[in-house]
């Protein structure tokens, strides 16, 4: 456990720098409505109200007109298999990072035309809506962000690109049996602003909530004896277990949730382009780019998936 704790702690502290020449004022000019209309307000968690399109609306045109024409994307650099900085190569890697690169390639013809911004779980909505300060604003968030009715009131989501569900993690041999009464008086860690945080607010089963900026911080607290269990997405739980084999899933996964790419609500042309990428990304069955990325980063801990979730 000590080795894993040292690794996770070192990853948490690695910052992401800003691209040279990217002016905050330059970014701010992008905060305008786009020409592609949203169809209707709904709470469909699988399918966006915005249809796929290759058209450049106002948002994309403004992004391309920047002094440094790059997409600014909020990501995680601490979630193994999803978005993390490889300690050996110092490069960002993971399933979400592959998707970001595909979006940049679609818009610019260059998968490297991206400025990555590390955002915590609780910063995702604020970063999109410009409440994280001049250096915190992003065009998109691609960070294991679950689509929910409440979040859809604040941001615009793409079609769902991954299926997950909440899961309790505990040390092997623990008396904790899942999201149930075995959590009474136990210290359960989750990330501020996460679906797990919202679930525990609704029903904690008598648990003491421990809140941290990122899911990885929960692993460190568990290892240090500052928490008894973790509640997070099953997809993120797989990465935590890969980093520390002394923990395991406790009980069954809770009902399904779905990840989506998020943008500011007015930037419909940007989400329309993302949805085009997602449509193309999953085309080709076993040979699709979605499947190739899944096999590379996630299949070992999350076996049996054949593609992204589909409406209907």
Task: List its traits.
Solute-binding_3/MltF_N, single chain, alpha/beta, transport, six-stranded mixed sheet, D-Maltodextrin-Binding Protein, domain 2, 2 domains, 312 residues, signal, Sugar-binding protein, disordered N terminus, Bact_solute-bind_prot3
Protein model, in words:
The structure is a single chain. With 312 residues, this protein is an alpha/beta fold. It folds into 2 domains: 26-161 and 260-297, D-Maltodextrin-Binding Protein, domain 2, CATH 3.40.190.10; 164-254, Periplasmic binding protein-like II (D-Maltodextrin-Binding Protein, domain 2). The chain contains 11 helices and 14 strands. It has helices at residues 2-12, 24-28, 58-64, 95-108, 124-128, 149-152, 195-202, 215-223, 234-243, 268-281, 289-297, and strands at residues 71-75, 78-79, 83-85, 92-93, 114-118, 140-141, 156-157, 162-171, 187-191, 208-212, 229-233, 247-250, 256-259, 262-263. The strands form 3 sheets. Strands 8, 9, 10, 11, 12 and 13 form a 6-stranded mixed β-sheet that branches. It has a 5-stranded mixed β-sheet with strand order 5-1-6-14-7. The chain has a 3-stranded antiparallel β-sheet with strand order 2-3-4. Helix 1 (2-12) packs antiparallel against helix 8 (215-223) and helix 4 (95-108) packs across helix 10. The longest helix is centred in the N-terminal third of the chain and has 14 residues, at 95-108. It is globular, with a radius of gyration of 19 Å.
